[in-house]
Design brief:
The protein contains 3 helices and no strands. With 79 residues, it is mostly helical. 0% of the residues are buried. It has one domain.
Length: 79
């Protein structure tokens, strides 16, 4: 299934559930914005969960060490 089809199915499911919940009526634009915000929030939450899992698994380094590696990689001074 294509990404566009998946998105359309996801939006349709969201809109049907949102309208069935009995809340105040929403325009198509309002429904789309709510759906889009919800997806963005889900993506951010997933990224946070992955980051926390990386920390728990020891896949991290202190920010100062990371910045020093970047400075060295690109030949930048601390200035």
């Amino acid at each position: 299934m294509s990404s566009t089809r998946d998105d359309l199915d996801s939006f349709h499911h969201f809109a049907v559930e949102r309208l069935a919940s009995g809340g105040s009526p929403a325009s198509l634009d309002e429904l789309f914005m709510e759906w889009s915000d919800s997806r963005s929030r889900d993506e951010v939450n997933d990224a946070i969960r992955r980051g926390l899992a990386d920390i728990e698994a020891g896949r991290h380094q202190p920010a100062n060490d990371a910045m020093e590696s970047i400075r060295q990689q690109f030949g930048l001074s601390k200035g």
